[in-house]
Design a protein that fits this description.
Elements (H helix, E strand, L loop, with lengths): L17 E9 L2 E8 L4 E5 L5 E14 L2 E6 L3 E4 L5 E4 L4 E8 L3
Antiparallel strand pairs: 1-2, 2-8, 3-7, 4-5, 4-6, 4-7, 4-8
Amino acid sequence: MVQAIELKEAVSYSPGSVVSKTILDKKAGTLTLFAFDQGQGLSEHTAPFDAVVQILDGEAQLIIGGKDVYAKAGSLVVMPANVPHAVRAEKKFKMLLIMIRGE
């Protein structure tokens, strides 16, 4: 069934947790929603593909290649392939992660 998804409402915060919800998982890439409670995050890692983060609610601190990038609701951030990155929630926030597996 084809329908519109209200991204901000499609994933909920959980105290002391990071919640993820996969919206689409295809050979070409994935769409995953995340809700980070304050103080939560993802440790530094790399991905073999470009990724795009769209902040849906709140504010995020991304560390990309050792540089701090602050983004708020409505912002879009590109994380290049093979560049170390991490995510921190100084305040709670929600994001959509778009992973592109192609060249």
